Amino acid sequence: MESVNSAVVGTGDGQEPKVRHSIDMKIDVDSTVCDGRDSFQPDQAPSDDEKIMEVQTDVLTNALEEEKYDLDSSYDEDRTDSEFSMEEEEYHSDVFLDEDEDQDPPEPGMTPRMALKGDMEVQSDRQVSDMEQAEGQLCGADEETSGGLCMVLSLGSYHIRHVPGKQEYLDTCKQLGVVPVWSFVRMMRVYRLRIRHRSLGPLGTRAICVPVALSPYITALDLEDNGMGAEGAWHVTELLKSNQLITTVNLSYNNLGPEGALAVAEMLVENKVITSIDLSGNHFGESEGVHFAMVLKENTTLQELILKENEFRENGARLIGKGLVLNITLRRLNLSWNHIRNKGALAICTAMKKNMGLRDLDVSWNGFSDAGTIAMAATLKVNVTLTDLDLTNNRIGPTGVRAIANALLVNQALTTLRMGKNNVPYEEGTILLKAIKKNKNSAMSELDLMLA
């Protein structure tokens, strides 16, 4: 038996640090325009064509050095998923230098963008139109996302090459009257597509689904907190019914409601590829429990189901429990923050006596109380597959703690038990440790009794 961290092993949410969603393409005036010299003019005045080529080459060189990426990086199959995450803002779209002989070089002391905006009249009508359209489209995007990219588009020297679905996305945005998310346009070659907190709404979500359906790269789709509602959920689920690449989906905090729950459930019954889905904070109520009971009964590929911060309460938990009895493939279930008490808690515990597939169960921040905890203790005596159990903040008192201690005398599967933020006096905490020590076949390696 491994040694037990006696009092508390603190656990955190493990969230990744947030990264600003912007392209940090900084162009230094001195290094870009004047190359460290006091004057832009060389000893021998170059021709206009040579000036243009020098400025454009310097701009591209400095931009690429700042970005630190290789032109062929989007085709590197050896990269890990994390390198392609949208949160890290890796720039995988190919860019190339567009030599435009109509452009004049910037005046000394001016950035390339200032020069182009000031000398707009020397460019062709097509260029002016393209630049105005690009900047106009960016005006609707949030400042974090569009700030760096606005410089790239207004320079007129950088263009994103054609990628599958790019033009279809722009056409759909124009048709629906929504502003394109340009950070998405340049990330169409990533494996993990993350677009969070962009207020896409139903129409913006519909537009996003068009290129995602055409992408041969995307295997993880994260659309957290975009206000898509039930209508947006319908568009996403229609996409996922036929998609054979995407295995991880995050639709959390999108106000999907009852209709969205039904759309997602019907998709999960039909989809045979998705292994993980996060549906947290979508206002699912007691009646929506029947939809996820159906998913647990019918789906044989889903391994992780996150339903935290909804409102399943007693009846919803009871329905989900019925589905758990028949499921053998789900490995992780998160039902935290769902107002599960009394009969709902008993239903989940009873189901876990028969379920032989689940490894990780999170029912923290509910109201199991002593009665529900006693039922969970009875489950731990017979369940041989559950390894991680979270009972944090469940109104558990000394009676419930003693019941868990008795279960730990015989349980040989559990490795992590979290019971922090409950009424666990010192004496009862000691009883838990003694029970683990007494069980020679115990697998326990982490016990969390943190009070705050």
UniProtKB/TrEMBL annotation:
The organism's place on the tree of life at top rank: Eukaryota
Cited InterPro entries: Leu-rich_rpt, LRR-containing, LRR_dom_sf
Pfam families hit by this protein: LRR_6
TM ranges: none
Region listing for Disordered, in residue ranges: 1-23, 65-91
Annotated Acidic residues bias: 67-91
Listed name of the protein: NLRC3 protein
Native source species: Branchiostoma lanceolatum (Common lancelet)
Gene it is expressed from: NLRC3
